[in-house]
Each structure stands twice: as C-alpha cells, then as structure tokens.
Amino acid sequence: MKIEELDTPVLTVNAAALERNIERMERMTSAAGISYRPHAKTHKSAKVAKMQIDAGAIGVCCAKLAEAEVLANEGVDNILITTPVVGESKISRLMAARNMAKIIVVADNVDNINMLGGMTQLAGIEQDVLIEVDIGQGRCGVEPGIEAARLAQIIAGHKSLKFAGLQGYQGKIQMTVDAAEREHQNEASIRKLSGTVAEVEKARLEVGILTGGGTGTLPFDIKRGLLTEVQTGSYVFMDARYNSIGWPGANAPPFELALHILTAVVSKPSPDRAIIDAGLKAVSNDHGVPLVAGIDGCVFEFGGDEHGILRMEDGSEVPLDLGDKLSLIPSHCDTTINLFDQYIVLKGNTVVDVWPVDARGRVQ
Ligand SMILES: Cc1ncc(COP(=O)(O)O)c(C=O)c1O
Question: Which residues line the pocket of ligand 1, CB cutoff 6 A?
C-alpha cells in the first residue's frame, strides 16, 4: 500500500529515521561509556522497546505500572517504573508483573517502602528500589542530601528490598532553548544528585544505579559523566518542540523527526482556508500547535476536536485541494502517540508494517 491510499488521520513512522535515531543513541552513549534505559512512555510500544534493547539499551523505563504490565506481557523483560508504585492493590499487581520481567521501582516515602518491604517479604520476592530525589522539578522525590540516605537505610533494613541507587530527573529544563543555559541548569541539578550520592555513601551504602536525564540534557549528561544511565524518551521520534531548541555548538539536533500525522483536506470554504481532519483528537496541543510539513508558510490552527484549519502566513491561497493529503509534525510526541491505536510504518512512501501502540491509555 502507498501512503496516498491511507485513510486519515493516521500516525505514521519514518522507519529509516527511527532506526537512525536508535543507532545514534547507542553510538553517543557507548562512546561515553554510559548506559541507556530509554523511556517507553514516549512510544508505549513493545516493538520499539525491543528495537532499542536489541540496539544496546539495558532495558526501558515506564512511567506507570500499567505501561510496565503491558510491555512485560509482550516480552520486554527489564523495566524501571519511574513513578512510585503506591498502595496495596498496585504493589500486588507489581508482584504479579515480576513473574514476567525484572522490574525496578522508585520510592520517596517511608510508608510506601515499608508496605513494599512487608508485601514482598510475604511473597518471597526480592525487590530492587531506587530513591527518587527531587533535583529541581518539584514533582516526586525527597529533598537532596541526608533524607535520601535515611530512606536508603530503611530500604536496606528490609530483608526483601535491595537499595539499588538513585533517580533524579529534571523535566523542567529539558526544552530550555539556549543550549548553554540548559547546560548551566543541568549542572545545578546534577550537583544536587552528586551531593546526595555522597550522603548515601557516608551511610555505607552503595549507589549502584544513578538514573535520570532526558533528550534535551543528553549531550550534557554524557559529558558530565555522573549518571550511570540516561532515561531519554523523545529522541526516538523527536517532535517540533525538541527540534526547535538549541543544541551544543549551534549544531543541528542529534536526532531526526520520525513521526507525523497524515491528514487530509475535508473542506475548502474559501481560497485562504483549508480544513483538515486532524484536530485535538489526532494531535496534542500541550506543547503548542503542530507544524505543517512540506508547505512553507502554511500554519495550523486547532478547529476543535476533529478539525484543523490551515492558512498561509501571508494570507494567500492555501495550495491544497479537497482530498489532498499532507503531514503534520506533532509539537509533543508522547501525548500525540497516546491518541492512536497504531503506528503506520513507512519506508519512503510505502507502508511496510503496522505496530500497535500497546500501552495506549495505560495510565494506572
Ligand atoms: C522520569 C522521566 N524520565 C525521562 C523522561 C524522558 O524525557 P524526554 O522525553 O524529554 O527524553 C521523562 C519524560 O517525561 C520522565 O518523566
């Protein structure tokens, strides 16, 4: 099948660009002697996770237990869940999922650690736990320093728990446009993590894993060398927002745009306005509007749940007719992917495969 024959809107993947992104991550990290555990919250796909692991990733991250359950069931066997797993019901599910995969969890709370310790001991399971440290995001995580050391000791005091290291992720700085400023911000966060490592080591505990980092801070995390592994997610497909930020040495982004929404013109009420079949249900808006690929000066505006409105910046006629197809570049890959059941995989203009978005909507 050719791309022109597809019904729209659909999520398309440029297979060659995806493969190059995966290879580049492997090359960049292996040259620096650092591991990578890509975040599967971006793609929610067992197929893509396995491609990353086959290329050299040590496993994947999942944001939620439900994402991990789906990927483990599809044979992804090494997973870090980067959000605390809290409460009896979820810890029971975690223990069931452990029959399918090695799963590491994060924690930032004594009660949660004690419940994990109690339930895993009863079940005869040994569970690896990382302490999440808040290195500036103001989301989950203990304050850097002695609090992490205290929790690490509590973990180590449980027979069934193993203190495995620290997680520190600073999401707020990943898209700082100026590369030098981003590096500066990253250094401030990394210092909080290195100070915490020192406190934990004073308590005579070993920090085996130091995990964090995203696509935006990757060049600096690699250069800095504190993290033992990076959790980059978006690099695999990229998006308009990540593509627009500065990269070190004024270089182009190290990764290529590999994800598009194929959409079609369903109405052209006037020459200066074309209406397409992709609105809020086909492309996310949390990072702004998508870009229109291949038509210079053509801009997108949301026209509601089901429609997008295209205009030319200079007010001239939109060079599209009813039924014409075009591609949008999503502004945010993660939230756009979660709107679709499947990826249509392209080599050039030919459809070569269809992959399910296995963990779509799995937010529990
Ligand atoms: C904990 C954590 N680690 C890593 C990432 C991956 O970041 P990015 O998609 O910017 O590479 C995210 C993304 O939200 C995250 O929440």
Answer: 39, 42, 82, 169, 171, 174, 214-216, 231-235
